[in-house]
Amino acid sequence: MIDENEANLKGNHMKTAELQKTIFRIGNLLQMSFGQLGAIVIKENSSQGDGNFEIMIPGHRINVIFMVCRINKYVEYTEVLKTHTTEFLNKIVGILHECATRWDGAANKTEGDKYLITWKLPNTDN
Questions:
Q1: pTM for the whole structure
Q2: Is residue 35 part of a domain?
Q3: Which of 39, 65, 94, 114 could pair with 31 in a Cys bridge, judged by C-beta atoms 3.0 to 4.6 Å apart?
Q4: Is residue 125 part of a domain?
Q5: pLDDT tens digit sequence for 21-38
Q6: pLDDT tens, residue by residue, 42-62
Q7: Shared domain check, 70 and 53
Q8: Nearest to 119 by CA among 68, 65, 61
Q9: Average pLDDT of the segment spanning 107-125
């Protein structure tokens, strides 16, 4: 038989675990929404520890290269491939992510037939 104190401890532990999972999910959603560079702004805001989220803090100037990849005749491919469309897209996205990672870039956004990859350039304060 489980006593009442032990049951409360297990209940509190489960609540803590659920809270940790929720915070982790919110962090992932924020990073997906704002991208890799936006995650830095979120980190700086949340690390202040005062509970406030100040969006008007001074920013940092960065130099970035943007590359947009687009699948030509995307609609035609999806009509022909039908149920295999997801497999086809996953292979293409896998190749793009691998290339971005290999050359120190980041795959930032997917919008149907368009994919955005960015490379942050070294800081050149001259």
A1: 0.54
A2: yes
A3: 39
A4: no
A5: 888 888 777 777 776 666
A6: 777 766 666 676 667 776 777
A7: no
A8: 65
A9: 83
